[in-house]
Automatic annotation (TrEMBL):
InterPro entries for the chain: AAA_14 (IPR041682), P-loop_NTPase (IPR027417)
Species, as recorded: Acidithrix ferrooxidans
Protein name listed in UniProt: AAA domain-containing protein
AAA domain location: 54-191
One Pfam family hit: AAA_14
Length: 479
């Protein structure tokens, strides 16, 4: 897409309606939709942004990044910031070098009355620019007042983010947390959004799930077991995309246009890269069938009918788009061994259900979704304690030998300490029998994540804790 100065002006005026009216939010489609969702959900991924900072906000499409940006703009306006100091523009499909045109024309013409005063830039979908957008941003930070401004770049793909963040070294301003992530709601946010009456508990770290403090937490949650189990079942059905959660609250179902829009996101990049919709459907379905099992890529590729390299590229693209995540096998030291077969999971239950919804495939087994979302809870926790961990690093792994397997082991991304091992068995009885694999493994200790059984006897090598308890306690900061 070629973007000239006239098109820049049109795009910025369209995307910055507060320039024209202080009541812009009352007619803004995104803000009206968020208000009409009837859910209490205000993520803090852009909290405390400041002048001079260069922030990267990333996460999947349809997860609410645009609404979050607009709410942040509302907050700045409420603080008395001049509307012309706040610039938002969506640059999806732009040539990267046109970001320079954007900066120059906005400063020289559209907001010239501000002079050299600080500006707040919200540049949406910068990762969808064509070309090395990070080089243009780096040059602007080095050679213009853009380096003194607050800049928020948003993106829906992990591709090239490592290269970008490397280029931004020393240019991100006086901030400690420039990487920000917005993922689908965690379980705690989901419960809060649906106004489920649950006790306030202190967040637990992933390395203290069998501690004395954890035991106190499990006992505090025990009277609410029925409520938590019911909420967890709903979470496995609905997922954490805000629009889906809002529709479930109002109508007890996820509307067809919502999951269809999510499917459009999944297939858009695939079709652009030359993969047809039938094969893409087979890939998504194949991942769903393999949830909780090590994935042999060669056999998977043969099943789908594509070359191994083609399948790997498609899985890489899904992972880059924050739709799929990898759980590699751990070596004897607990580190990821990328030479061995790993597991693949989706980042949200609604994505896992797309083959069923779109093509009428078999429903994903709830025990596999339970395991997936336990892993996602750990993934989200790691991202909170160490921003950026969701896009780089193999912190969550699984253990496997000839006779046993443990679903989730690994290390905490902030301190490098060992996580409490978790084996997901969505059972309501015979938990001790199910725990034998964990108990008799080389690890020997950990938590069996059940459906509704709690047994946290002090001194026991294996505890039984409901999956909903674990996900709920991990939903809070845990720092």
């Amino acid at each position: 897409m070629v973007v000239n100065e006239g098109q820049v002006a049109e795009a910025v005026r369209r995307d910055s309606p507060w320039w024209r009216s202080p009541h812009w939010a009352a007619t803004d489609r995104d803000m009206l939709e968020a208000a009409g969702s009837q859910i209490d959900y205000y993520p803090l991924s852009l909290a405390n942004i400041r002048s001079g900072g260069l922030y990267m906000l990333y996460g999947p499409r349809r997860v609410g990044k645009t609404v979050l940006v607009k709410r942040s703009i509302q907050a700045l306006l409420a603080q008395g910031v001049n509307p012309l100091q706040i610039i938002r523009v969506t640059v999806d499909g732009w040539q990267a070098n046109r970001l320079g045109t954007l900066y120059e024309y906005v400063v020289r013409v559209l907001t010239s009355s501000v002079g050299d005063g600080p500006r707040y830039w919200f540049i949406d979908e910068v990762t969808a620019c064509r070309g090395q957008w990070w080089s243009v941003v780096k040059n602007l930070r080095d050679n213009t007042h853009f380096g003194d401004d607050c800049v928020v770049l948003t993106g829906s793909t992990n591709q090239d983010l490592d290269e970008a963040i490397k280029a931004f070294a020393g240019r991100r301003g006086p901030v400690d947390d420039p990487d920000r992530c917005l993922l689908p709601m965690n379980f705690g946010e989901f419960c809060h959004s649906l106004s489920i009456d649950l006790p306030s508990v202190a967040g637990l770290r992933a390395d203290e799930l069998m501690s004395a403090r954890a035991r106190e937490t499990w006992m505090a949650l025990a009277p609410y077991t029925d409520d938590l189990v019911a909420a967890w079942q709903t979470y496995l059905e609905v997922g954490g995309y805000p629009k889906a959660v809002g529709e479930w609250r109002r109508t007890n179902q996820v509307a067809v246009p919502t999951w269809q829009a999510l499917w459009d996101v999944v297939r858009g990049d695939a079709i652009t890269s030359g993969m047809n919709e039938v094969i893409l459907g087979a890939v998504i379905n194949g991942i769903g069938v393999r949830l909780s099992s090590p994935t042999a890529i060669s056999g998977f590729a043969e099943e789908v009918g594509v070359a191994r390299e083609t399948l790997m590229k498609r899985i890489d693209a899904l992972a880059s788009a924050f739709l799929v995540w990898r759980n590699p096998r751990a070596d004897n030291s607990g580190n990821a061994d990328l030479r061995k077969q790993g597991k693949l999971y989706f980042l949200d239950p609604l994505v896992a259900k797309l083959p069923q919804l779109v093509n009428g495939r078999s429903q994903v087994d709830v025990t596999r979704l339970n395991e997936q979302q336990l892993g996602v809870a750990l993934l989200q926790w790691n991202e909170r304690v160490r921003p950026g961990s969701v896009r780089s690093g193999d912190w969550i792994t699984h253990y496997r030998n000839a006779s046993s397997e443990v679903d989730f082991v690994g290390k905490c991304a902030d301190l490098g300490t060992r996580m409490t091992p978790i084996e997901g068995k969505y059972v309501s009885d015979s938990w001790r029998q199910e725990a034998l694999g964990l108990r008799n493994s080389a690890i020997g200790t950990g938590i069996l994540a059940t459906r509704d059984i709690l047994d946290a006897t002090e001194g026991e090598a294996v505890w039984a804790v409901p999956s909903s308890f674990l996900a709920f306690a991990l939903s809070f900061s845990g720092k």
